[in-house]
Design a protein that fits this description.
The structure is a single chain. The protein is mainly beta and about 180 residues long. The chain folds into two domains: about 35 residues, Ubiquitin Ligase Nedd4, Chain: W (Single Sheet), CATH 2.20.70.10; about 140 residues, Nucleoside Triphosphate Pyrophosphohydrolase (Alpha-Beta Complex), CATH 3.90.79. Strands 4, 5, 6, 7, 8, 9, 10 and 11 form an eight-stranded mixed beta sheet that branches.
Length: about 180
């Protein structure tokens, strides 16, 4: 960051008083510009023992399989974001359950949160999806899963099998998808 998004002044990178990290600070108005992780929200939508999977129509990982998920938007709740992403990517409506997986993707500056869900509508391929299908655990192409966080969420989901054993936390330090 070179310029302040508030007043347009130049910024310097230094540690603000009382802080322990270097930040971008506007030389003109003094605003401290914090960079924080982005939140990705998604859902494991289930019907009859199968989960809704989407084949990606966008990069990164075009053609790989994922769960309906994406970046949370300002002005929405975590659950609202997960439901919206499911509707956008799989044209599906879900009845959300609980958050069951939290993945810290440190290298990408992201936190991924996954809900359980019950698929309550038909589904199809949204604009970012080549194909949307229901898959049993045995049908999932594990070598073609787009992201570590999605693989963790799926494996955890199937291990839990509806027992609601709380939130499972995982950390991904590298950026390999």
């Amino acid at each position: 960051m070179k310029y302040c998004s508030s007043c347009g002044g130049t910024v310097s990178h230094r540690v603000p008083e009382g802080d322990g990290r270097e930040r971008a600070i506007c030389d003109a108005c003094g605003i401290v510009h914090y960079r924080n992780p982005l939140v990705v929200v998604g859902c494991v939508a289930e019907r009859d023992g199968k989960v809704l999977m989407c084949k990606r129509a966008i990069e990164p990982r075009y053609g790989y399989w994922t769960l309906p998920a994406g970046f949370m938007e300002l002005g929405e709740t975590v659950g609202g974001g997960a439901a919206r992403e499911t509707l956008e990517e799989a044209l599906a409506t879900v009845e959300l359950g609980h958050i069951f997986a939290c993945v810290d993707v440190v290298a990408a500056g992201q936190v991924h949160l996954f809900y359980t869900g019950k698929l309550v509508s038909d589904f199809g391929a949204g604009d970012e999806t080549l194909e949307a299908v229901l898959m049993s655990e045995e049908e999932i192409p594990w070598d073609e899963i787009a992201f570590h966080s999605v693989e963790f969420a799926l494996r955890t989901y199937f291990e839990d099998r509806g027992r609601n054993r709380g939130v499972h936390v995982h950390e991904v330090r590298r950026t390999r998808y």
